């Protein structure tokens, strides 16, 4: 990107966003707490499932839980079902434990359980929670420690609008669905590849109607997913 003259600034948080006429006003907070105000013509909110752009534009995120919870982590485990130098997958009535060895000590685990309520998935996932998720699938391993671990509950949700004036939502900020099928990132990249060339063309004088077509196609794509 730098070769193309695009520089990424990291650890900068969008804290406020308003629009007037054709210009947005965005307040950005840096790591040292200082703030900068910018006035972009276009804003693309690619800021994930908990999107600040979506919140700041008061765009509803409509949808519901699909009852599927994931427990992810890099764990120290032992027991007869610990994988060697291979990927291993255990299935039990639709629940899944996936294990892949990363080093002599650490194994990446992904556990997917059905019939879960969103409120039952704790923000702080304990080793005991992880162990009982694994036990439910009947995999014979004991968790001894974790480098990191995190829970995740799948929802099907879509922003009511993908465009609010000159502000657009893309990626998980605009639509989320089950990770099964591996299409979340893929659809997000397609959203933005499509949007980016159209914004570039409109900025160079193309008809603004081009951008209306983007929104129709993005909504269709999300509906298909
Ligand atoms: C278990 C699991 C497995 C998955 N497997 C696949 C797969 O196989 N294939 C696939 O295509 N997809 C997969 N996905 C989905 C994929 O991870 C997401 O769809 C994708 O990462 C979304 O990208 P994004 O850029 O839209 O959002 P994110 O990756 O969430 O990025 C948003 C960024 O915005 C930043 N941000 C948030 N708020 C602010 C703010 N106020 N100011 C500035 N920055 C902010 C965040 O720090 C973050 O860097 C999977 C997801 C999960 C949970």
CATH architecture of the largest domain: 3-Layer(bba) Sandwich
* Structural shape: elongated
According to DSSP, the number of beta strands is: 12
Helix coverage percent of residues?
Answer: 10-25%
Ligands bound, unique: flavin-adenine dinucleotide
The fourth-level CATH homologous superfamily of the largest domain is FAD/NAD(P)-binding domain
Q: Predict the CATH topology of the largest domain.
A: FAD/NAD(P)-binding domain
CATH C-level class of the largest domain: Alpha Beta
Count the domains.
2
Q: Any idea what the radius of gyration is? A: 21 Å
Structural category:
alpha+beta
Summarize the entry for a quick read.
This protein has 225 residues and is α+β, with helices and mostly antiparallel strands. It has helices spanning 52-56, 127-137, 184-203, 209-224, and strands spanning 13-20, 23-29, 35-38, 43-45, 61-78, 87-92, 95-101, 107-113, 142-159, 163-164, 167-169, 175-176.
